[in-house]
Amino acid sequence: MQLIPRSLFGQVMLTLVAALLIAQAISTTLLYRAAEQRRELGIVHAMAFQLLSGAERHGREAMGDRYSHHSRSPRTDRIQDPPLPRLPRELRYSEGATTPLAPGDKRHPKREEALSQLLASQGIAVAEVVVISRSALEDPEIQRMAEHHPLAHRRFMGSPFDLAIAGLRQDGSGTWQVARLPVASRDRTIVRTLMLQTLILFLVLVGLLYFVLRRITRPLAALAERTQRFGGAGSPEEPLAVTGPDDVKRLIEAHNAMQARIGSMLDEKDVMLGAIGHDLKTPLAALRVRIESVEDDAARTKMAGTIEDITQTLDEILALARIGRNNSIAEPTELGALAASVVEEFEDMGEPVTLSTAGRIAAPVHLTWLKRGLRNLVTNALRYAGSAHVAVLREGDWAILRVDDDGPGIPDDRIAEMCQPFTRGETSRNRETGGAGLGLTLARAVAEQHGGTLVLANRPEGGLRAELRIPLGR
C-alpha cells in the first residue's frame, strides 16, 4: 500500500490537507491555552472578590469603595455558568480556626501564587494562601447543609459539580477566611467550533483546489500519454488539443511542434530507407542471376550464400528501422496460439523446439511483429544451443513469452551489450554461427513497441533465458 501519492494532483492535495490540519492544530492549541488562561484568571479574581467582599460583610476589614456586597464581578458571571447552582452566602464565605485543606485534596500552586499577588495588590497582608479543588459531594460544609435541608440536598446532590476553595490567613491572625466557588467544566465548545471551521475550510479550499488542479493535471496527463505513445510507436497522430493555463498551453504547443518535426523526420527516414532497400536489392537480384553462369559449383554456391546473407541483413536493418511506424492497431490475441504457430514453423523444419502454456492468456499485440520477435529468440537459442523450449505464462499484469536453451549462456558483463545492434555472442560473420547481430535488438524493439521489455538472464542450471514481457492492460 502506497501512502504517498506519486502524481502531481495527489501530492498537492496531500500537502494542502496536511498543511491545513497542522495549521488548525496549532490554532486550536493556542486558542485553547488562551481560553484556559482566561478561565484561570476569572477563577482567581472571583476567589479574591469573595474573600474581600465576605470580610467586608462581616465588618472585619474595609478594603475600598470598589468592593461592596451589592457588586458582582463580571468574571464571576463568566465562570459561573447558568447550569451551576448558586451557593448560599454562608457557603460562599466562611471563617474558621483551621485550614480548609484536607487529606487527599489537590492544591493548585499557580492559583495560589496568582491569588496571593492579587490580594497583596489590594493591600492584604498575606501570611498563607491555600487553593484546592474538590467535588461538591466531598465538601463537608455542603454535606452538612444537605443533611439538614432537604431542598439543599436536591439542589446540590442532584447535579454534582466541582468546587474551587480558597483559604486565606492574614499576617498576625489565626483565622482562616474561606471562599467556595462553583467551577464550570472546561469549555469544549472551542474544540467543536474549530473542528467545524476546519471542515468548512477543508471543503472550500480542497474543492477549489480540486478544480484548479484538474484543469492543470488533465492536459498534463494527456500530454504524458501522448508522449509515451509517440515515443513507443512513433506513429503520426493529430496534434494534442491546447488546453489549461498558459504555461501548460505553451508546453503542449511545444510538444505538438516537436512531434510534427520528429514525425516529418521519421517519414523522411522511411522514404530514404525504402529507396536504399530498392537500390540495393535490385543489383543483388541481378548478381543472383549472373552467378548462374559461373561454372565452378563451389564458387557459385559461396557467392549465392553471400548474396543471401546480404539480403537477409538488409531486411533485418529495414525491419528494425521501421518497427513501430505502422499505423495498425494492436489486436487482442491468444498468446498460446501465437507461440504455437511459431513453434510449428520450426517443427516443420525438423528443429527441436518444444512448447508449454499456462492456460489462456490474451493481450493486445501487433501479431506480425510479435511473431518475428519470438522467432528471433528461438532462432538465437537454436543457433547457440541446438534446442529451445518456449513457454507462455503470466506474472501479475504481465504476459511472458519465455525461451530457454541449454547453451553456454552469456557472460553477465555482456548481457546488456548483447541487445545492441551488430553485437553477437560469436565473433565470426558466419550466419550459421554468429549472424548479423540484429536478432536480439529486433526482439527488444518489438517488446518496447508493445510497452514491454526484453529480459535476458543466465539460468542457474545452465543456458540462457530470454523473455518478452508484454503488459496485459494496454
TrEMBL record:
GO molecular function terms attached to this record: ATP binding; phosphorelay sensor kinase activity
Top-rank EC class of the record's enzyme: transferase
Domain Histidine kinase: 275-474
Keyword Nucleotidyltransferase appears in the UniProt entry: no
Main location: membrane
EC number(s) reported in the record: 2.7.13.3
One Pfam family hit: HAMP
UniProt name for this protein: histidine kinase
Membrane topology reported for the UniProt record: Multi-pass membrane protein
Domain HAMP: 214-267
Positions with biased composition (Basic and acidic residues): 60-80
Keywords of this entry: ATP-binding, Cell membrane, Kinase, Membrane, Nucleotide-binding, Phosphoprotein, Transferase, Transmembrane, Transmembrane helix
Catalytic activity annotation: ATP + protein L-histidine = ADP + protein N-phospho-L-histidine
Alphabetical list of SUPFAM superfamilies matching this protein: ATPase domain of HSP90 chaperone/DNA topoisomerase II/histidine kinase (SSF55874), Homodimeric domain of signal transducing histidine kinase (SSF47384)
Intracellular or extracellular location(s): Cell membrane
Disordered: annotated segments: 60-111
One Gene Ontology cellular component: plasma membrane
InterPro entries reported for this sequence: 2C_sensor_his_kinase, HAMP_dom, HATPase_C_sf, HATPase_dom, His_kinase_dom, HisK_dim/P_dom, HisK_dim/P_sf, Sig_transdc_His_kin-like_C
TM segment ranges: 194-213
